[in-house]
Design goal:
Shape: globular
Order of helices and strands: HHEEEHEHEE
Helix content: 25-40%
Structural class: alpha+beta
Number of strands: 6
């Protein structure tokens, strides 16, 4: 499927090429079961994210927006789409691992950081959570 290929191209560009995440850490066994989302600008895919159900909670992950589309609202739209799908699936909350530079972005969307900073693929992260209504 063409859309599925776009998901992996964007993740490769942002995480692997730009942030130097090892490719073997970027693709995982949760991808086949995840709901994947694409943001488009003028018909071209510019961002992606995924939702994985874990019991009654969702895990928002692999949120990536191409550099040229950052600041356009694509990331915001992706998070809102993930949240809507989580509600449709009856999930009660969403968890995520935010890169520390993105905590402000997620805070503006209603997520709350908790716990200590931790390393994931050489990048500092914090846990964040949002209860869904």
């Amino acid at each position: 499927m063409r859309d599925r290929a776009a998901v992996f191209v964007i993740r490769g560009a942002v995480f692997v090429a730009e942030q130097n995440v090892p490719i073997e850490e970027e693709w995982d066994d949760r991808d086949p079961e995840a709901d994947h989302f694409l943001a488009r600008a003028d018909g071209v895919a510019v961002g992606t994210g995924r939702l994985v159900a874990d019991g009654a909670e969702g895990i928002l992950g692999r949120l990536a927006v191409l550099q040229r589309a950052r600041g356009t609202g694509a990331g915001f739209a992706l998070v809102r789409a993930v949240e809507e799908r989580a509600r449709e699936r009856g999930l009660k909350a969403i968890e995520l691992h935010a890169q520390t530079h993105a905590i402000g972005f997620y805070t503006r969307l209603g997520y709350v950081a908790y716990g200590d900073e931790f390393d994931d693929a050489g990048i500092p992260h914090r846990h964040m959570r949002k209860e869904l209504s």
